[in-house]
Write a structure and sequence with these properties.
10-stranded mixed β-sheet; single chain; alpha/beta; 3-stranded mixed β-sheet; 13 helices; 353 residues; Rossmann fold
């Protein structure tokens, strides 16, 4: 991807979050001319600025995608936009629905209009499996954001900007996700809270997520949704494996850490979909992903692709990871050591207090 981003000017909305900051770290390897981090979290920006202090080609801009004028000033001269800013927590969006609309829908439309006006080369928007057959406010707003991004390729008189989306599953160990929650609960002695023993979720690592974003940037013609093929698991299996692995690190027996079933939260689904039955009819398939073309345009040939043969892609009908596979994945991507580090930090804090 070095040739794609070398010497370019790039804007990352939500650039201080888990996904946005990893996009920034990866982009730095390609030696872009400048990366502008646009987010409303000044504390997160401060921490990232400290981490990346040796890089002089990063600009830190405090702003909200709801504010079109501020967004316009931030996008002057930009070549690529990665749109990761969003309200992402399902219960928060359920209780504050119009706040989700203002950020996820109006904010996305603001970004689309500014990017088109500024002649940005490509805009890649980060979406979620909850946008597929949505049953909650967050999913509904992200579905509408996907449709806005797809339609943006057609409202320009002379279309210079390419707009596309990537649809994520749960990103493992990202801020606010279930794995850091389980870590904190286990290391404090429990209980570990699981909503439903039959609840299943698609899981992807942060490196997988970033790879999908950049591959989408490379091959997008406009209007597509790119969906990575990824494993699914039962949340109860994930919780049990983490208890087995982490309880001894906290000086506890696994049997000392209870798991409580607390019931689904407002708006939560028992399983997630990355590709619905209707969408599968429009999708093409690669070894690593599905590519869902916009309903508004004819299918383009992208590398070696074939029509999708799946009838749908749902976490309750795919083969689920075994506990052994979950344990191997946690070890491979370093989540268990990261939890150990959290434990050590907690111990230091207790000593200090």
């Amino acid at each position: 991807m070095d040739d794609l981003f070398a010497g370019k000017k790039i804007l990352v909305t939500g650039g201080a979050g888990s996904i946005g900051s990893e996009i920034v770290r990866t982009l730095l390897k390609s030696k872009p001319d400048v990366i502008r981090i646009y987010s409303r979290g000044e504390s997160e920006q401060f921490e990232l600025q400290h981490e990346l202090s040796k890089h002089k080609n990063i600009r830190y801009l405090v702003g909200d995608v709801r504010e079109k004028a501020r967004l316009a000033k931030s996008m002057k001269g930009i070549d690529y936009v990665f749109h990761a800013a969003a309200l992402k927590h399902v219960p928060a969006c359920e209780y504050n629905p119009f706040e989700a609309v203002k950020t996820n829908v109006i904010g996305t439309q603001n970004l689309i209009e500014v990017a088109a006006e500024e002649g940005v080369e490509k805009v890649i928007s980060i979406s979620t499996d909850k946008a597929c057959s949505p049953t909650n406010v967050m999913g509904a707003t992200k579905l509408l954001a996907e449709r806005l991004v797809a339609a943006a390729n057609f409202f320009q008189c002379e279309p210079d900007t390419i707009f596309a989306s990537v649809r994520f599953g749960n990103v493992m160990n990202s801020r606010g996700s279930v794995i850091p929650l389980f870590c904190r609960q286990i290391l404090s002695g429990g209980p570990v809270t699981v909503t439903d023993p039959e609840m299943t979720r698609f899981m992807m690592t942060i490196p997988q997520a970033i790879k999908l974003v950049f591959e989408a940037t490379r091959i997008a013609f406009g209007g597509e949704i790119f969906i990575l093929k990824m494993p699914a698991l039962r949340l109860i299996d994930l919780a049990e494996v983490m208890v087995e692995e982490l309880a001894p690190m906290a000086g506890l027996k696994p049997s000392d850490v209870p798991i409580h079933i607390i019931g689904s939260r407002p708006g939560e689904k028992k399983y997630e979909e990355l590709l619905s039955a209707e969408e599968a009819k429009l999708a093409v398939e690669r070894d690593d992903m599905f590519i869902l073309s916009s309903r508004l345009r004819e299918q383009h040939e992208t590398d070696a692709v074939i029509p999708s043969i799946v009838s749908a892609y749902k976490s309750n009908i795919v083969d689920l990871m075994t506990k052994s596979e979950i344990r191997k994945l946690l070890a491979t991507i370093g989540i268990i050591p990261s939890c150990t580090s959290n434990r050590l930090s907690m111990n230091k804090m207790r000593v200090a207090l």
